[in-house]
From TrEMBL:
Belongs to the NAD kinase family. This is NAD kinase. Its cofactor is a divalent metal cation. PANTHER family: NAD KINASE (PTHR20275). Involved in the regulation of the intracellular balance of NAD and NADP, and is a key enzyme in the biosynthesis of NADP. Catalyzes specifically the phosphorylation on 2'-hydroxyl of the adenosine moiety of NAD to yield NADP. The keyword Cytoplasm applies. It comes from the Bacteria. Its EC number is 2.7.1.23. It comes from Enterococcus quebecensis. Keywords: ATP-binding, Cytoplasm, Kinase, NAD, NADP, Nucleotide-binding, Transferase. GO terms for molecular function: ATP binding; metal ion binding; NAD binding; NAD+ kinase activity. NAD(+) binds at residues 45-46, 122-123, 148, 150, 161-166, 185. GO terms for biological process: NAD+ metabolic process; NADP+ biosynthetic process. It catalyses: NAD(+) + ATP = ADP + NADP(+) + H(+).
Amino acid sequence: MKVSIVHNHEHKSKEVTGQLLLLLTKNKIEIDDHQPDLVISVGGDGTLLSAFHRFSHRLNEVSFLGVHTGHLGFYTDWRDYELEELVQSLLVHQEKSISYPLLDVKISFHGNKPDKHFLALNESTIKRGNRTMVADVFIKDELFERFRGDGLSVSTPTGSTAYNKSIGGAVLHPSINAFQLAEIASLNNRVFRTLGSPIVIAHTEWVEIQLQESNDYLITVDQLDIYQDDIKSIYYRIADERIHFASYRHMHFWHRVKDAFISED
């Protein structure tokens, strides 16, 4: 097995990474930052998101595992004081993995500018500077509504617990191969109307957001901010690729939700 470690720049994470490297080397587990079989993130959920985007070109060959230096997150199964147990599990257990859906994001532009493609593990949002955003929402090539408001958020099932939840979206179990469209402060009155509720889109369908011409749109893909001129539309669907998490001790999704939002056991 070849392992790569991705960590943030916090002192605690660097310290834990050093300890983990010593344990891996001691147990003759190879470190390979180019073609690993397993990517271990040390930090928090944001660090794992960074690891995902760093190795998103190798999703069919690599699985991920998260070590949290604070409290457990939605993508981290191990704590920083469990390193020896973690390394022993790599040596003893046959590797199994659990996979989650990803979001395919395609940004199209006016003129001859080529499309840009991204994969999102959590969500993608569309917002516009300091003005009301006006956009036509198409579902499977059919106009669904004309949106007016602060913006739109499109999330994966695992990402449904992030920004999506804070704007009233539903929490989806990651075994549901679908994505969710939620409105951010939509404008609803006698003249302008939107559905006003989150929508769950099946993996067999897609959503296209066609934007009015403007140069002040901000597109986010997970923690990435994308400022581009002349954006015409953004196309969303469930990606063909999936992310794989090493399931040596993968925590049940609803346990994570309870731990994060209700109480700790």
